[in-house]
Write a structure and sequence with these properties.
two-stranded parallel sheet, 57% helix, 214 residues
Length: 214
């Protein structure tokens, strides 16, 4: 396999563990949104191409087809949260950047690009909470809402921006559970909001938790 380089991946990152969290929200997505699942599994090859040793790459896929609103049976997400809290996951912030980079692939469906951007939002929100010394309560329903709605407190996000992100969360829920189709406009709006959130988070981390951006 050919190796690659990335400006955000340094020699300091490679001794750390790399965790790849694979999930679709509903059994319907597992069956119908095959391209997203395949792309997620292919991230192991991407990590290896970036020179991560295979033994330090961990696939977490226990949550395929399990709702994100009720986390008490989401063993995979709880595993991921624990590892991040312990400082073992070296590429969570890079994962948000990667997800947003992949939203620019126009051949992907609006639903897939929306999903990638939404995952970046959740990754940013998760890091924001943990950078403040807290661990999200993944055993309670509605933790997606909690991660988003605490952004004004965790990183000082403007309330109107939080409201927009929370609206995107509700759009995602409708798509997951009611079968509503994601439009190009909705996908573009989610991508813009996720990109802006990532910028805000990185700026906050540089001022308050610089080591998290290394």
């Amino acid at each position: 396999m050919l190796t690659q380089t990335h400006p955000k991946v340094s020699a300091e990152h490679l001794p750390r563990e790399a965790f790849i969290y694979i999930r679709q929200s509903t059994p319907r997505q597992v069956v119908e949104n095959i391209e997203s699942t395949q792309r997620q599994y292919a991230l192991r090859d991407r990590a290896m191409a970036l020179r991560w040793p295979n033994e330090r790459i961990h696939l977490i896929d226990e949550d395929l087809g399990i709702s994100g609103e009720y986390a008490d049976n989401r063993d995979g997400f709880q595993h991921l949260v624990s590892e991040v809290a312990l400082g073992h996951a070296g590429i969570v912030l890079a994962a948000a950047r990667r997800n947003l980079a992949e939203t620019r692939i126009k051949e992907l469906s609006p639903e897939t690009r929306f999903d990638l951007a939404y995952k970046a939002v959740m990754q940013c929100g998760l890091l924001a909470i943990m950078a403040n010394g807290y661990r999200p309560s993944t055993n309670e329903p509605g933790h997606h809402a909690t991660v988003i709605q605490t952004l004004p407190v965790s990183i000082g996000l403007e309330n109107d921006r939080m409201v927009i992100l929370d609206k995107l969360r509700r759009t995602r829920n409708l798509n997951d559970y009611s079968g509503d189709v994601v439009s190009e406009e909705e996908a573009a709006a989610c991508i813009r909001s996720a990109e802006a959130l990532l910028t805000t988070l990185v700026n906050w981390l540089k001022q308050n938790q610089k080591e998290w951006t290394q």
